[in-house]
Every structure is written in structure tokens, then in C-alpha cells.
């Protein structure tokens, strides 16, 4: 089986960046805190459910969370549940050898804690219907996960740079709107992991920009223009995402201001010199960011108008 020139380029780039990956891995291991999911769950609130233990079945009145926080937690958890698919996807990008492989396994182990702690919290506090949640998990995971970028190193690394930061923002804001200090503390802890993961990937793209600026710029632009959260395949995702956006948990403004823009500023892509397709890609990115900014403003305006109408009706 012949190897394409693109595959040769990607392999060569990864080899050239192996020492950077090892450095970033060691930095992460020195920075990451050990933590334990069971310490963030209010076990004293738990009681048996119906079924073999003959406990009490779930009712909507059991949940103390508002609709927005509940829907966001469900989306966040179902997204975390698809970790086996993400592990396969990221292993396809980075491989399983050397520093890259060590990172893949460490990242997977850390990510697994997120699903554990969120599910335990939701189950113990009876925040959501556990039967509906389990059915949603089965349905979502049976769909599997296929990365839009395939095994392309630059596209895959650029994507997770943005995605990890987006997940951090979503977790933190979900905790804030939950109205539950325990939930907020838990999601703040999860978000800290996501931030450290983002830093690893973001720093790898920074190194890639030094080695292969034009190719990296094209990958960044393509990922930004085609970006979707990994949970977009969740049943009812569009309805849930509208609820989440209207609550200000994650919307176009946050995506533009708190996810895309910080990474692009850190990389300094609008201050760098590119040639050929790299220069074209940077111009495309600038135009897209302007369009996204305008769309975010329109959404904010419509949301405020809706809120004003609702407030008027209540008064």
C-alpha cells in the first residue's frame, strides 16, 4: 500500500515535534493535580431506586436543578461518555508509541474521571431521570464517533485545542447556573483538567506554526470554519443546544470571544507572515471571524429582545 505525500508530511512533522510533545507531556504531569471523583459527590443525599433494590422510582420533582443546567449536564455527560470513540480517534492521530502514545493514554485516563463524577452526582442527587439518561447513553454510544479530520495530525491537534477550551467554558458556566455549590465545585474541578489538556494541544500547534506555518495555518482555518462539538450527534442536540445558548452557558459570543479568539491570539496568527496558501487561509480566517462576530451580536440582540418580552408578560 503506497503512502501519500500528505501522510509522509504528517509523519515527518510528528517526528520533528516529538521532543516538543515529550516536553509538554512532562510539563503536564508536573502540573496536573491528582483528584478523586468520589470526593466531589454528596453521597449522603443518595437513596435506592426502584428495581432489584425495591427503592423509590425517579420523579421530576426529585430534581432541584433548573431546565438549563439539567440539559447542559446531560449534554456534557453524554459527550464525556463517548470517550472510547475519542480515544480511538486521538490514537489514530498521535499513534501509541513514545511521548505521543503516553499522552494519549494519560489524557484518556484523566478524561474518564469526568464521566464518572458527573454521572455519580446526577444519580445521587436525582437531578435527572436515570433510565432516560442510560437509554440516551446507549443510543449515543451506538452511533460511535468519527473525527471530521480523520487521522490528520494538524487538523486533529487544532480541533482539540479549541474543543478542550470549549468544554472548559461549558462546564464552568453549567456549574454557575446550576444554583448548587456542590455542582459548581465539581464542574470547576473538571474544567481545570480540560484547561490543562487544551494547553498541551495549543502548545503543539504553536510549535507546528514554527515548523510548518502555511500548512498549520490552513488546518487551523479549516477547523475553525467547520467546528462542531463532539456531542453534536446526541439525540435532540439542536434543541438542547438552543436551551444552553439561551441560558448563556455556551453560545456564539462565548465561542468567538472565549474559545476561538484566545487560541488565535496566543498563536499570533494575525501577526505572522505566511506565503501562498497559508496567507490565503489566514485571510479566510479573518473574514470568518468577522462574520462569526456579527452573527454572535445578532444572536445576543435577539436573546435580549426575547428576555424583555418575557419579562413584560410576567409583569
UniProtKB/TrEMBL annotation:
This is Putative acyl-[acyl-carrier-protein] desaturase DesA1. GO terms for biological process: fatty acid biosynthetic process. Fe cation 2 binds at residues 111, 164, 194, 197. It comes from the Bacteria. Belongs to the fatty acid desaturase type 2 family. It comes from Actinomadura macrotermitis. Homodimer. The keyword Iron applies. PANTHER family: ACYL- ACYL-CARRIER-PROTEIN DESATURASE-RELATED, STEAROYL-[ACYL-CARRIER-PROTEIN] 9-DESATURASE 7, CHLOROPLASTIC. Keywords: Fatty acid biosynthesis, Fatty acid metabolism, Iron, Lipid biosynthesis, Lipid metabolism, Metal-binding, Oxidoreductase. CDD domains: Acyl_ACP_Desat. The gene is desA1_1. Its EC number is 1.14.19.-. It is an enzyme of class 1 (oxidoreductase). Binds 2 iron ions per subunit. Its cofactor is Fe cation; Fe(2+). One of its GO terms (cellular component) is cytosol. InterPro entries: Fatty_acid_desaturase-2, Ferritin-like_SF, RNR-like. Fe cation 1 binds at residues 80, 111, 114, 194. Pfam families: FA_desaturase_2. One of its GO terms (molecular function) is metal ion binding.
